[in-house]
TrEMBL record:
Residues 6-118 form the Acyl-CoA dehydrogenase/oxidase N-terminal domain. InterPro entries: Acyl-CoA_Oxase/DH_mid-dom_sf, AcylCo_DH-like_C, AcylCo_DH/oxidase_C, AcylCoA_DH/ox_N, AcylCoA_DH/ox_N_sf, AcylCoA_DH/oxidase_NM_dom_sf. Belongs to the acyl-CoA dehydrogenase family. Residues 257-382 form the Acyl-CoA dehydrogenase/oxidase C-terminal domain. This is Acyl-CoA/acyl-ACP dehydrogenase. It comes from Streptomyces filamentosus. Its cofactor is FAD.
Amino acid sequence: MDAALTAEQHEIRRTLRDLLARHGGPGAIPAAVGTAEGYDPVLWRRLARDLGLPGLALAEEYGGAGCTATELALACEETGRALLPSPLLATAALAAPLIAALGTPDQRAALLPRIADGTLTAALALPGGSLATALGLTGDNLDGAWAGGGRAGGIQAQGEEGERRLYGEAGRVLDGHSAGLLLVAAHTGGYPRSRTQLFLVPGDAPGLTRTRLTALDETRPLARVELRDTPGEPLGADDTADAAAALAAAGRTAAAILAAEAVGTAASALERTVEYVKTREQFGRAIGSFQAVKHRLADLYVRVEAARSAAYHAARDPEAGPLALAQALEAARITTGEAVQLHGGIGFTWEHEAHRYLKRAAGDELLFGPVHRLRDHAAERAGLFGPANAASGVPHGAGVR
């Protein structure tokens, strides 16, 4: 494929990389994640005001830059390199596309400009705790089983037209503790006509309780969201619309963007490791001069570049998003694991940068994977293991791991 970038796309990467480098440093991440928001609000406002980052893929009529998912993916590759704690993924890659796709003209006009200028952050609250399944990445989300079921469990919406009352709980909501707006997936229509619909819930709505959870990756803050008689506005004008198809479409694009971010994480971990092995000595020479170490680093380089190519392709063709995400998550896991090994004992310390990259890779796979299920579902959607293989006795999904 032709992965050549335009001059504008190169400039987006360069400008963002320079800005993040100036705001980086050994204490930048601990200071950011220690705030009430879970990120640096001053830096976030600058990213929104000076670079227009949250509105990069939004239409110009809503104050966005009018770019595509490719530009947002390139930006996220740079935030992945820096392990930047920010609400960018939850707001710009998950919530904003759903509002743009399903919202009424009034809802889009009221919400998207505030998202574009960074004054409003948003989070997707999905019951069941499985973001990957709800987005259709690791399984079919059309039956609504991921949302808890219509008779009990999940989140229920009661009431007639217009404002509804929401009851239930969503666990592991990305940036859910600080978002100014929640997009809540809830069951409506009662048990006989149960369907899943998205509702808009302001962060200060009555009956809403949000608790920040302890997460493996502290740069990805998670929250438990509880709703008790909480008012919610249906997203969109069609009260009978089911959210599953919209979630699956948004999930494929979000997978491409997340794949680019994971590539940035893997590439930065590899670069830092290469620099480290040039200075760490064993037996009177730098360990980077040992042939075995060179071979390991060369294998990692090939793996990262292959994942980058897949991520760029998926940004242009979101149908390839889940497979690109699988390749990128695997590359990040293997590369960051090798980075810890090659750093030796210091790499195992909790605060070391190599360990932070490892936790980001592991946390992302827990949230959006696992890798073998991403590949298995992609094979199912492509019909690779259909009736022809069933007749030959090959189990459905065999070999896709």
